[in-house]
Amino acid sequence: MTFRRVAIIGLGLQGGSIGLAVQSYLPEVFTTGTDIDPVTRARAAERGLVHKVCESSAEAAADADLIIFCVPPGAMGGAASEVRATLPPGAVVSDVGSSKQAVAKALSEALPGHLVIPAHPVAGTENSGPDAGFAQLFRNRWCIVTPPAQTDLVKLSSLVTFWEALGANVEIMDPEHHDLVLAVTSHLPHLIAYTIVGTASDLEEVTRSEVIKYSAGGFRDFTRIAASDPTMWRDVFLSNRDAVLTMLQRFTEDLTALQRAIRIGDSDMLFNHFARTRAIRRSIIEEGQDDARPDFGRADHDAATS
Ligand SMILES: NC(=O)C1=CN([C@@H]2O[C@H](COP(=O)(O)OP(=O)(O)OC[C@H]3O[C@@H](n4cnc5c(N)ncnc54)[C@H](O)[C@@H]3O)[C@@H](O)[C@H]2O)C=CC1
Ligand SMILES: O=C(O)C(=O)Cc1ccc(O)cc1
Question: Which residue's alpha carbon is nearest to atom 7 within ligand 2?
Answer without folding.
Answer: 124
